[in-house]
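Retro notes (design track)

What went well: tokenization of the new backbones is finally stable.
What didn't: we kept losing track of which sequence belonged to which structure.
Fix going forward: every design gets posted as structure first, then sequence, in one message. First example under the new rule, 84 residues:
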């Protein structure tokens, strides 16, 4: 029997709401990187993971990407997903 699919919602501190789904995957956390580029523009990277630890593990690669790509700065956020 297939797992029931559901929608997942992430609400970030700045009020942005991301909906994922329908999915049967066991995602529990959403992460987002907002990078400020040298030319003043922003670029957003995001994903979802099945644990808080896995989501936090994206911070190291984000710091490396900032160095390699010359980002002025970046913010890294992790929030818990809510199932609907």
């Amino acid at each position: 029997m297939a797992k029931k699919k559901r929608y997942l919602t992430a609400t970030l501190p700045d009020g942005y709401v991301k909906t994922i789904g329908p999915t049967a995957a066991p995602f529990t956390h959403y992460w987002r990187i907002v990078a400020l580029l040298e030319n003043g523009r922003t670029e957003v990277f995001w994903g979802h993971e099945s644990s808080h630890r896995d989501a936090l593990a994206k911070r190291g690669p984000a710091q490396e990407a900032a160095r390699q790509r010359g980002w002025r700065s970046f913010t890294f956020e992790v929030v818990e997903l809510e199932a609907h």
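Added context from the reviewer: The longest strand covers residues 29-36.
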